[in-house]
Amino acid sequence: MTDxxxxxxxDSPYAIEVKNxxxxxxxNPVLKNVNLKVRRGKTRVxxxxxxxxxxxxxxxxxxxxxxxxxxxxVDGVDITTLPHNELLNVRxxxxxxxxxxxxxxxxxxxxxxxxxxxxxxxxxxxxxAEKVREKLGVVDLxxxxxKYPAELSGGMRKRVGxxxxxxxxxxxxxxxxxxTGLDPLTTDSxxxxxxxxxxxxxxxxxxxxxxxxxxxxxxxDIAVIHEGVIVEDVPAKEIRDSTHPFVREFLHTWFxxx
Length: 258
Ligand SMILES: Nc1ncnc2c1ncn2[C@@H]1O[C@H](COP(=O)(O)OP(=O)(O)OP(=O)(O)O)[C@@H](O)[C@H]1O
Ligand SMILES: [Mg+2]
Prior knowledge:
By secondary structure, this protein is an alpha/beta fold. Helices cover 36% and strands 25% of the residues. The protein has a 6-stranded mixed beta sheet, sandwiched between helices. Strands 2-1-4-5 form a 4-stranded antiparallel beta sheet, covered by helices on one side. The protein is globular, with a radius of gyration of 18 Å. 38% of the residues are buried. The protein binds adenosine-5'-triphosphate and magnesium ion.
């Protein structure tokens, strides 16, 4: 065990609840009364075009941004009013996979994956090596600890990024645009990685995307955001039946390009 166990066992069926959140930057309203629930153990996709407010929502979920009004609950705890040290504890529930895998180029894969452990735990060298092996195993990578990021394919780098995100055993994994800029085959392998990770680790996942194909593959629930407003929020299999004009246009545009 690492020293990462945090606050109480949750009663709420939701890992995250975003309630009536408004956020402006200067005169620019970016989130307009956003409501969003993330069911525990499920994969929630937030789909929307560039600039619609997806990353801003995600930053609110981990308390990197505070709403102008409204609340964010993580496992039933309102993080908008938490003191800083308690917020840091809540943040340990999260693992984040960034758009660019954001690995440290000068570190080996092993050093990259073990980085959070070395920062946050007091495990022995051997125990850390074992954890790294285990987490790389979860993302189907073996014996690549000694390699450098530059020696890996884009898909492998994403996998290493996920291994690092889960090394502290988070209960929630956030993916910001995990497939943007990847070729179709690599996109497939990253989608599969998200599905596998969610099953094997039994985590709650939030995936930000503007890729309809990925969303349909990985999501249990899909919300569509347009100019800071959630215009649709349905189980994934119902998204094609949406009657909202923006959602229909967004889906049609995507399918036309395929
Ligand atoms: N720290 C900030 N200060 C000022 N404006 C910001 C800040 N962060 C985001 N914005 C603005 O908020 C809007 C939404 O940004 P956000 O990053 O959430 O978009 P997004 O949906 O994630 O887009 P993309 O798909 O391109 O990543 C944009 O207009 C952006 O310029
Ligand atoms: Mg973004």
